[in-house]
Write a structure and sequence with these properties.
The complex is a heterodimer of chains A (139) and B (174). With 139 residues, chain A is of the alpha+beta class. Chain A is built from three helices and five strands, in the order E-H-H-H-E-E-E-E. Chain A has a five-stranded antiparallel beta sheet with strand order 1-3-4-5-2, covered by helices on one side. Chain B has 174 residues and is an alpha+beta fold. Chain B has four helices and five strands, in the order H-E-H-H-H-E-E-E-E. Chain B is elongated, with a radius of gyration of 19 Å. The relative contact order of chain B is 0.23. The chains are: A alpha+beta (139), B alpha+beta (174). At the A-B interface, helix 1, helix 3 and strand 2 of A face helix 2 and strand 2 of B.
């Protein structure tokens, strides 16, 4: 693993069927996630995904990549545009640095982002992953 | 002179730094973890570490583990209990600080930072959360003057092990 390595992309389509499942587990029923008219009243083009779910998708991209050979140490995201109903989100990233800490663990920093299928940038940010030494070369 | 459109008051500024929310979860249920994993991976199957006890035992995890973003406080908490709910728990602090809410028509989460501890959430864990108001700021945005509110939340488990510390910034506007 080295700077410039890509993180495999992770995608989901935005729909009420998806978002209602997240609403059900997180008790999150704001109407701008459920009703296009409410979202338009608030200045958006359509209903949009819950921000924590968008965050979960970035997490899923990272955890799918890392598996159980390490852990996510931190994730920092800024939401640039709403993930609108009917669009498809694709989260991805790229390794920016790899360093070794005093315990022999490797700290992998990455830029992360998510775009929709029109090319709009929905999210950008940074993440840090901790990997055990034995896993550095494991993909 | 200040901006007459400002939503910030001296009382709001004086509350920066104050803790305003304390939560204790019920013991986390294995099926809560499974349902959460299904929701965030739907329509695909979630990873086995979140639902398959036998696979977890055979692969060194012991028990199923919660997704990193799992929320143990959704729907109900041990403290406060359902018959003593937090007054209008919202993604901003004013109701719990005893302040009037700024007159805004909409809100959206704008930034989220999470730092995870070594402890992963598992069935039976009890999570405690403490939240404080980290700050306010205002800036002009596409929809007019925007109020940014940042709050920080720290979670520990029943062994006082750090689970996560998160910072969320919510934008509100008229």
């Amino acid at each position: 693993m080295q700077p410039g390595d890509p993180i495999p992309p992770w995608s989901r389509r935005g729909s009420f069927l998806t978002w209602s499942r997240y609403a059900a587990v997180n008790d999150e029923f704001a109407l701008h996630h459920m009703d296009d008219d409410v979202a338009r009243h608030e200045g958006f083009a359509a209903a949009f995904a819950m921000a924590p779910l968008t965050f979960s998708y970035v997490q899923n991209m990272l955890r799918t990549w890392v598996g159980d050979r390490g852990r996510v140490e931190s994730v920092e995201i800024r939401l640039r545009s709403p993930f609108l109903r009917g669009r498809t989100l694709t989260a991805s990233g790229v390794v920016t640095s790899v360093s070794t800490d005093g315990d022999g663990r490797h700290r992998v920093a990455a830029d992360v982002w998510a775009d929709d299928d029109t090319g709009a940038r929905l999210v950008d940010g940074h993440a840090v992953i901790l990997l055990e030494r034995a896993h550095l070369d494991h993909r | 002179m200040g901006d007459s459109r400002s939503l910030l008051t001296d009382d709001m500024r004086a509350c920066v730094g104050r803790e305003f929310r304390w939560l204790t979860s019920f013991p986390i249920g294995a099926n809560e973890i499974r349902r959460w994993a299904i929701a965030i991976h739907w329509p695909e199957e979630p990873p086995r570490r979140h639902w398959d006890d036998e696979w977890c035992a055979a692969n060194g995890l012991g028990t199923v583990v919660a997704p990193d973003d799992f929320n143990p406080f959704a729907w109900a908490t041990a403290d406060p209990p359902l018959d003593r709910p937090i007054n209008a728990m919202r993604p901003w602090p004013e109701p719990e600080l005893g302040l009037p809410e700024p007159p805004t028509r909409a809100n959206i989460l704008s930034e989220l930072t999470v730092r995870y501890g070594e402890a992963r959430m598992r069935p039976g864990d009890v999570i405690r959360s403490t939240t404080h108001l980290a700050g306010y700021r205002e800036r002009e945005g596409r929809l007019g003057l925007m109020l940014y509110t940042t709050q920080e939340e720290r979670w520990v488990n029943q062994r006082d092990e750090h689970v996560r510390t998160s910072s969320t910034t919510v934008i509100r506007y008229r």
